[in-house]
Amino acid sequence: MSKRSPKSVEEKLEIVCLFLNQEQSLTQLSKQYQVDHQ
User: Fold this and answer.
1) Which of 3, 13, 16, 22 is the most exposed place for a label (fewest CB within 10 A)?
2) pTM confidence score
3) How far apart are CA 20 and CA 38, in angstroms?
4) Using CA atoms, how far apart are residues 37 and 26, in angstroms rounded to an integer?
5) DSSP string spanning the chain?
6) How far is CA 1 from CA 16, 31, 32, 34, 35, in A?
7) What is the pLDDT along the chain (38 residues), one digit of tens a residue?
C-alpha cells in the first residue's frame, strides 16, 4: 500500500505556486512539505 499522505487541493496549489513564483526551490519545497520531487 502507498505511504503517501493525502494533500488537499489547496495545499497542492500552494506548493505549485511557490515553485512557479520561484519563491522556493523544488528541493526546499519537497523537504518542507515532505513530498517526493521526482
Assistant:
1) 3
2) 0.66
3) 16
4) 7
5) ---PPP--HHHHHHHHHHHHTTSS-HHHHHHHHT----
6) 26, 22, 24, 18, 17
7) 456 668 889 998 999 999 999 988 999 999 998 888 77
